[in-house]
Each structure stands twice: as C-alpha cells, then as structure tokens.
Amino acid sequence: MLAALIRIRQWQAGFALLFALLAASPGLAQERPYFVTYSHEMEEPGNLEIEMYNAVGKPPGGNRFLGSTTEFEFGAKAWWTTEFYLDGQVTWHDSTIFTGYRWENRFRPLLREHRINPVIYMEYENTSADKSLREVVGHDGRPDFYDSNADARADKERELELKLILGSNFHGWNLSENFIAEKNFTDDPWEFGYAWAVSRPLKLAASAQKCAFCREKFMAGLEMYGGLGDALGFGLHNTSHYLGPAINWSAPNGMTLSFSPQFGLNNYSIPHLYRFGIQYEIEQVVDRFRRSR
Amino acid sequence: MRKRRRAWPLFVILTLVAAAFAVADGSWMKHVPAKDHERKNPYYGQADAVAAGHLVYEDHCAKCHGENAEGTKKRPSLRSARVQQEATEGDLHWLLVNGNMGRGMPSWSKLGDPQIWQTIRYVRSLGQ
Questions:
Q1: End-to-end distance of chain A based on CA atoms, in angstroms?
Q2: What is the mean pLDDT of the segment spanning A77-96?
Q3: φ, ψ for residue A81 (rounded to 5)?
Q4: Cα-based distances in Å from B70 to A64, B21, B84
Q5: Per the domain annotation, does A147 fall within a domain?
Q6: Number of folded domains in chain A?
C-alpha cells in the first residue's frame, strides 16, 4: 500500500516537473533539418531541448517498424552539449519494446567560428533491437530487421561511439560531415560510418512582422549517410546507404517539426524510410528553478 | 626496467585548451580583425531592419540579455557604452558570428548574416 502511494507521488512529482518545464517560456530553436547528421552548432548554454525522432520503414518481406528516440539535450557550456536518449520501437505483428539508452557529449575545441569547425562527439550506448537508425555503421543493413524482437533483444549492444563532426556555415548554407567509429565492448571490431548533410533557410532575412509561415521559418536540405564496413573489412561491401531531402518548420511556440523521406541506395538498405521529428526548446531552464526557490 | 609513460601529449592538450580559453576572455574587442571592425551594416538606415531585428532579438537574445536588453544577473546589458558607442557594428557582427564561448556567449552564425545585421540594427537603435 505504502509502495503504491510512493509510486503515485513519484508520478505526480514527475508530471509537475514536466508541466513546469512545458509551461516555461519556449525559445525558437532554429534547428537544422537533419536526422542523422550532427552539425557543429551546439545547444545554447542553459537551454534544454526535448526532441523526439522517429523512423518508419519496412524491409521487403518483413514487418513494418517504427523506431523512436526521445532526447534531452542540454547546453552545459557554449562549447559543451550533453544529451541523454531513450530508445524504443514498435514492430507490426510483433511487439513494442524499450530498446535502451544513450548518453553523449559534444565538445567544440576551437572557440571561434572558422571555415571548417570541428566538434568531438563521444557516446556510450546500451541498446538492443534498436530500429531508430540514428546512425548506420559497419555492416548495418536490411538483414538486421528480420529478427523477431525477442531474438534481437538477446543481442545487447554496449558500445562506445566516437564522431568527428565538421561543420561550415557560409552565405546561409550549412554543410556538415560526420565520420563515425563505433566499438562494441565485446570482441567485435571497430565499425565505421559516415553522414553528411546540407541545408539552408528558405529566406535569410527576418520579416518585420510576426508570422508563422514566413519562408525564413522553413529550412530545407539534403542528407546522406551509410556504413563503411569495419576494421576487418573496410569499404562499401555489404553496407547500407540512404539519401533523402529534409525539411523543417520552426513553429512560433518554440516547437520545430521535421520531415524527411529517405531512400535506400542499394539492396542492402531498407528501400524507403520516412522520418519525422518534433523538437521543443526551453530557454534557460536552470535559472527557472533558481528563481523558483 | 619500467618504462615511464610519456605525459607530453596530455601537456600539449592542456596547454592548447588553456590558450583557447585565454583568447576567449572578456576583452573580445581586442581580437576583432581590422577588416571586420570596418564592416558596415548593409541594413543601416532601414526602419524595417530594426523591426525585424527586434523579433530576432526576442526569439534568441531576450532570455539572457533581458527583454529590453538591460541585462540579467549573469549576462551583460546591451545598453552599455561598450555596445552602444565603443564597438562598431562590424565588431558586434564579429562577436555574434564567433561568440565568446569561454564566457558563455554562443556563436550565432546559424542565423546567417542578414538576421545578424538586423539584430545589430535593433540593438543599436536602443541607444539612439
């Protein structure tokens, strides 16, 4: 009885915290419309961004799936962003499962804007049966999507993922390239992958009146990513690759909506992926709690 | 015999990090290159740019620098003599593009030049 009461109190406290966060004045995120590629742009210090990214696909002859990640991205410093992910997936005619968590940190070693801006990315992940396709490395591909969830969950992936992110902003365009190296803590070899993307707002100058659907509120681009094999067999053999346009809209209430249809470029890839995301930014979240004390 | 582990890579990294923070101190104006210092705002004299800059300011700057740019507990006022008189608009553009990351000011290069210049027009209009 007491345990049940404590659990209810915890839920109430959780909802109160969530309400306090959502009731906070939102910021305008102005995010890039990328789903896999990271740009060199960090979260503004003190801001918390809650993001949900989803990928829907169907391997030929297999079951349709929806892979999802919920992310909490916090700007610890202007040069350091930290992010916690919760992953899950639904597979039609199978089950809905929680697939694990990730924690990543991004550091910007050069404290000024350059022609090419490097960012160091480090992530620990503990997942199994993940279908969110937040990165493609090694020989990830279509065969991974035929196992039942029960079988796939047996394969625990405790991994360290390193990325070198390079980003450039010029004349309103952003070009980002990611080089990925991932190591499972078992005896598996290092796996490699890549991602690149380019985007631009539909209009660069801001309008003089408030508007929800002005062209500068939309950002469009192109994204491509894939695997590069592993330390035992580096290259394109048995690797999957995806390419697709991407667009997002910065809504006036601090929310950003993103969409990207993506196409598998070879038989080892899922033929079509539909990605959509929602992001919500809360400005200066720590100050808000300080004031409320 | 036990081999001594080489510590110089760590020393080099720490030195580079320290140097990066040293150049990111509060006296950012000293680091603005001459050609950036001289840059003119292409939106100068355009009333629409002030209105547009006000909206950009509300979306991205007001939470830290205050709704009326008066500053907050930790973030400086943009009505100060440094921002309103000592710095050129080129200096402010350089600051917004590069940020002052060691002091918590992020780079706003993602806004693109037009919105940065519009924001500067709004901020400078506060001192007129």
A1: 32
A2: 97
A3: -120, 135
A4: 54, 27, 12
A5: yes
A6: 1
CA separation for the pair A241, B110 (Å, rounded): 28
* Per-residue pLDDT band at A19 (split at 50, 70, 90): very low
In this complex, which of A201, A206, A287 lies closest to B55 when CB atoms are compared?
A206
B19 contact residues in A (CB cutoff 8 A): none
Its domain, for residue A134, covers 27-292
Question: Are the Cβ atoms of B98 and A204 closer than 8 angstroms?
Answer: no
Q: How far is CA B73 from the centre of its chain?
A: 18
Residue A135 lies in a domain: yes
Element (H, E) at A97: strand A96-107
B19 pLDDT band, cuts 50/70/90, is low
> How far is the C-alpha of A99 from the C-alpha of A87, rounded, in Å?
5
Residue at A78 is within a domain: yes
Q: What is the ipTM of this complex?
A: 0.86
> Could you tell me if residue A47 is left (phi over 0), alpha (psi between -120 and 50 degrees) or otherwise beta?
beta
Q: Which domains does chain B have, with CATH numbers?
A: 26-125 (1.10.760.10)
What are B47-98's pLDDT values in tens digits? 999 999 999 999 999 999 999 999 988 899 999 999 999 999 999 999 999 9
Q: State the CATH number of the domain containing residue A168.
A: 2.40.160.40
pTM of the shown model: 0.87
Question: Do A283 and A46 form a contact (C-beta atoms < 8 A)?
Answer: yes
Is position A259 within any domain? yes
* Minimal Cβ distance to A204: which of B16, B59, B112: B112
pLDDT single digits (tens) A150-191: 999 998 889 999 999 999 999 999 999 999 999 999 889 999
Does residue A1 carry a pLDDT above 90?
A: no
Of the pLDDT bands very low, low, confident and very high (cuts 50, 70, 90), residue A74 is very high
Nearest to B101 among A32, A39, A78 (CB): A78
- Chain B hits for A39, CB-CB cut-off 8 Å, are 110
The nearest alpha carbon in chain A to B115 belongs to A205
